[in-house]
Design a protein that fits this description.
4-stranded mixed beta sheet, elongated, alpha+beta, single chain, 8 strands, 2 helices
């Protein structure tokens, strides 16, 4: 709630009152705010989690490329520096990307066989 002293309506023959402004911030569909940082979840395919990848991430300023390192796991946090919330005197916060590795619901025969071989090798 913001209060502006003396900025409200005046009663007849009296001084102006105070103006109160109530602000409601809508929830964003991708980001939530933690201080000056923006936090988001990112679903990553199993193959990208194992082998690494580059993925374009939508930021407040447009697309930014995010490098997914080999062997990333669910719960790992990756950072895109200086793309978060602008601050008055310190630049910007970061975007923190929470990784969620997704597993396929169905496998093709060749994918199943490839994973069987990996299992036999102890992976």
């Amino acid at each position: 709630m913001i209060r502006l002293s003396g900025a409200g309506e005046a009663v007849k023959g009296g001084a102006p009152g105070d103006l109160y402004i109530k602000i409601h911030v809508k929830t964003h569909r991708v980001f939530h705010k933690e201080g000056n940082d923006l936090v988001m979840n990112l679903d990553v395919k199993l193959s990208d989690a194992l082998l690494g990848a580059k993925i374009d991430i939508q930021t407040l300023d447009g697309l930014s490329s995010l490098k997914i390192p080999e062997g990333v796991n669910t719960g790992d946090i990756l950072q895109i520096k200086n793309k978060g919330v602008p601050t008055q005197n310190r630049g910007r916060g970061d975007i923190l990307v929470n990784i969620r590795v997704t597993l396929p619901k169905k496998l093709s025969k060749s994918a199943y066989e490839a994973i069987q071989k990996l299992k036999e090798e102890g992976l």
